[in-house]
Write a structure and sequence with these properties.
Blueprint: H1 9-19, H2 24-38, E1 47-49, H3 57-67, E2 70-74, E3 88-93, E4 99-111, E5 118-126, E6 132-137, H4 144-152, H5 156-167, E7 178-179, E8 188-189, H6 191-218, H7 228-258, E9 262-263, E10 276-277, H8 280-304, H9 313-322, E11 325-330, E12 335-340, H10 346-362, E13 372-377
Parallel strand pairs: 1-2, 12-13
Antiparallel strand pairs: 2-6, 3-4, 4-5, 5-6, 7-10, 8-9, 11-12
Helix pairs in contact: 2-8, 6-7, 8-9, 8-10
Length: about 400
């Protein structure tokens, strides 16, 4: 507001350096997460969806009680079948927008032993042949169809990271500054063991090649008696080389066995210690990106309501973010008018107008002010009048 141009890059870098000083980004992200979780006691930070190979009641309990992270997976040891009258035909939308209809039922279930077990939500799907597919979930704030949608669309987790890398550049470096790694109890690979292991692998490869040459030589003796002495000398040279390599290999193998593979970080020699990229600015920018993605996702859900092709919703929202707007603050009326320029076609304009109506109904205020945001979609630009050729 009041700016005639976008701030210069050096100004943004200076601001980012100020905001990312110390542990400020970590504290800010933690405060946002704490406020969000306190608003709903059964809300989780996020949900991990995986196959039954990761089934572990102790892991589920630890993730929920210590980190407020929910898990959804297939039940590895389901009990007896549920009565079919418990199942209800449920229609819902998968994460990719596909509409499906499944027969679902939900009950509480205890998994694990008394010490490491916990209560979970068990959701079952009844197939057409009468088989019951059991899911368990520690996402206590969700409903049955939400668990089913997450489980049957778990490939969307990979799509999320691909989308974030493509449109939010979440994998790019934010800065090149490094810092010392703080004290850690995690063991690291011993540089001496790594050197011996590399030497062992090299000698083993050389030995295999020379053994192959020796075997090929022995299996093809010289038929001519005049060439036998030369063949014998070559055989003796190959055998000597193989024996020398075997002796070296045994020595290196013994040294590697006596050398610990991992050592504590503090035991590393100074010349082998490495630094890490400073995480503060990366955490700050990633937090902003995730907030922007959450806002984009919420707006996409609203835009989908007015589109026949729901797959176009997110791309339309991205086009909206890139479009031009006119800002007109009215401090007397306490309003910040946001005039959004029209899109390329009527279909997009109808969807954007529906979104703006929802935003106006929410009566959001511009951060740091008392100005209420009021969105308006401007009409498409009128076409200039056509002039016939030869008209005066």
């Amino acid at each position: 507001m009041g700016l005639d141009r976008v701030p210069e890059v050096r100004c943004l870098r200076k601001k980012l350096a100020q905001l990312s000083a110390g542990n400020a980004p970590e504290k800010w992200a933690g405060l946002l997460s704490q406020q969000w979780l306190e608003a709903a006691p059964y809300r989780c930070r996020f949900v991990i969806v995986f196959d039954r190979e990761g089934y572990s009641p102790a892991f589920f309990k630890d993730m929920w009680q210590k980190h407020r992270i929910a898990c959804i997976t297939y039940h590895k040891y389901p009990k007896e079948a549920w009565p079919e009258e418990h199942f209800v035909e449920t229609q819902f939308t998968l994460l990719n927008g596909e509409q499906v209809s499944l027969k679902l039922a939900e009950l509480g279930s205890w998994i694990g032993d008394r010490k490491q077990g916990l209560w979970v939500r068990e959701v079952r799907k009844l197939t057409t042949n009468g088989h019951q597919v059991s899911l368990i979930s520690s996402a206590y704030g969700q409903v049955a169809w939400g668990d089913a949608a997450a489980m049957f669309s778990r490939w969307s987790q990979e799509n999320f990271f691909r989308y974030m890398m493509e449109h939010y550049a979440i994998d790019l470096l934010s800065e090149y500054r490094t810092e010392e790694i703080p004290g850690t109890n995690r063991p690291v690979v011993n540089p001496s063991w790594r050197t011996l292991d590399s030497r062992f692998r090299s000698l083993k490869g050389q030995l295999q090649r020379w053994q192959a040459q020796f075997a090929a030589h022995v299996l093809h003796p010289e038929p001519d008696a005049a060439d036998v002495p030369k063949w014998e000398r070559r055989k003796s040279d190959l055998l000597e080389t193989v024996q020398q390599l075997e002796h070296k290999l045994e020595d290196v193998k013994a040294q590697r066995k006596q050398t610990p593979q991992h050592i504590a970080w503090d035991q590393l020699p100074n010349e082998d210690k490495f630094k890490r990229l400073a995480p503060s600015r990366k955490r700050l920018i990633d937090t902003v990106k995730l907030i922007a993605y959450r806002a984009e996702t919420a707006m996409t859900a609203i835009v989908r309501e007015s589109l026949a092709r729901e797959d176009d919703a997110r791309s339309l929202v991205r086009d909206l973010f890139r479009s031009e707007v006119d800002l007109s603050p009215d401090t007397t009326a306490g309003v910040l008018k946001v005039d959004v320029h029209a899109m390329a076609n009527p279909r997009s304009n109808r969807a954007i107008r529906h979104l703006l109506d929802q935003l106006n109904a929410a009566e959001f205020k511009y951060p740091g002010t008392n100005l209420k945001l009021e969105y308006t979609l401007l009409g498409p630009p009128s076409e200039p009048p056509t002039t016939e050729v030869g008209a005066t």
